[in-house]
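Duplicate of #3305? Posting structure anyway:
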């Protein structure tokens, strides 16, 4: 990225050589992302973040046929989709938020019966950002194909962690975000299938008229490189991360009474672990863990600071208290066995300490 922040600061829309070089760098990044997603370069549009991609995809789908005023989504989506759906509801759209079961899984028969001739778009997560639970993307795409409805996938958490081949997948649009695969924050991309009609959110001449605004060249270059690194050895990297996560999880569940895992054990990203610690307020745990250099989150990082229990865990049937006592640990390619050891050393002590400090005294552990 550094050359594009220092000497290579030309505007990619300009005709001079420095601009042309920046445009070429963007083209390379587009190719790297297309390679990771198994699609054509021309199907990738750069955006400022996953949220922008989601808004663009869903509003474009709604614009494709204004007579269709129904959106199907799930009860466990990221706040970007949830809030956009609230906004669409205010504009008169009917929103179906499909439930999930206790493991966070989606039933595609329910999806099929929710879609009607009014449905403008189905928008679903590929992988849940709080639990890592994977939705059955192949089946979802098959249902949407049968029902002839546009499908948008929020793959922000999945890209770079699970293999994705978009060509021939039946997915019309797919959102991704740089910082989930070690690119900088503030850069995203949207896949738009060449068979889909598209209406831009930001009008202007860049990105072939599909997303106006001068490109964030350095971040796009970083995103492209991150995509290339994610493609290389994905299986081995993810297996290593899965082993770290599984050892962490097994040992925490064994060492801490009243700790329970949230989300399906199998249909899950290899890097995420969401655990409820009975009788513990996750906010307090976060602070004490942070003091030991352990960075994790309560519910979704994007809603930290809010006192609401996670809507994802509540949709899975957890009580308010159980949802409020959950912590999400996620592992990446930079984590090591020593990090896991550090977590295993501190977490049981911190949970025990918080339980002793609890105003009601030590809770009765039922699990
Ligand atoms: N969708 C999911 C599943 C996410 O996890 C996030 C961010 O955490 C987003 C969308 C939003 O992406 P961004 O923060 O790049 O707008």
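Output from current build:
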């Amino acid at each position: 990225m550094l050359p594009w922040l220092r000497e290579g600061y030309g505007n990619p829309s300009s005709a001079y050589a420095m601009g042309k070089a920046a445009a070429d760098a963007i083209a390379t990044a587009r190719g790297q992302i297309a390679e990771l997603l198994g699609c054509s370069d021309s199907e990738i549009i750069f955006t400022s973040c996953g949220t922008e991609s989601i808004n663009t995809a869903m509003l474009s789908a709604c614009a494709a046929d204004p007579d269709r005023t129904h959106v199907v989504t799930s009860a466990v989506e990221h706040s970007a989709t949830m809030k956009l759906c609230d906004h669409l509801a205010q504009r008169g759209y009917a929103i179906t938020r499909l439930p999930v079961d206790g493991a966070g899984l989606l039933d595609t028969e329910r999806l099929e019966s929710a879609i009607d001739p009014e449905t403008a778009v189905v928008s679903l997560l590929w992988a849940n950002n709080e639990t890592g639970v994977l939705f059955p993307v192949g089946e979802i795409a098959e249902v949407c194909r049968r029902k002839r409805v546009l499908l948008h996938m929020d793959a922000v958490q999945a890209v770079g962690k699970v293999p994705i081949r978009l060509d021939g997948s039946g997915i019309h649009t797919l959102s991704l975000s740089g910082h989930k695969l070690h690119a900088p924050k503030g850069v995203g991309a949207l896949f738009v299938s060449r068979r889909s009609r598209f209406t831009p959110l930001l009008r202007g001449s860049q990105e072939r008229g599909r997303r106006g605004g001068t490109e964030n060249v350095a971040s796009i270059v970083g995103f492209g490189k991150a995509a290339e690194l994610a493609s290389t050895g994905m299986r081995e990297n993810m297996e290593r991360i899965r082993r770290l996560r599984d050892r962490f999880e097994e040992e925490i569940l064994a060492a801490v009474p009243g700790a329970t895992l949230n989300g399906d054990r199998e249909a899950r990203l290899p890097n995420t672990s969401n655990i409820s610690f009975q009788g513990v307020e996750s906010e307090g745990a976060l602070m004490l863990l942070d003091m030991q250099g352990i960075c994790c989150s309560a519910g979704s990082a994007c809603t930290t600071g809010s006192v609401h229990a996670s809507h994802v865990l509540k949709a899975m049937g957890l009580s308010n208290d159980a949802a409020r006592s959950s912590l999400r640990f996620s592992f990446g390619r930079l984590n090591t066995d020593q990090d896991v050891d550090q977590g295993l050393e501190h977490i049981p002590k911190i949970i025990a300490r918080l339980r002793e400090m609890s105003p009601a005294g030590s809770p009765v552990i039922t699990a």
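Confirmed duplicate; merging threads. The longest strand covers residues 119-125. Residues 205 and 212 are 5 Å apart (CA to CA).
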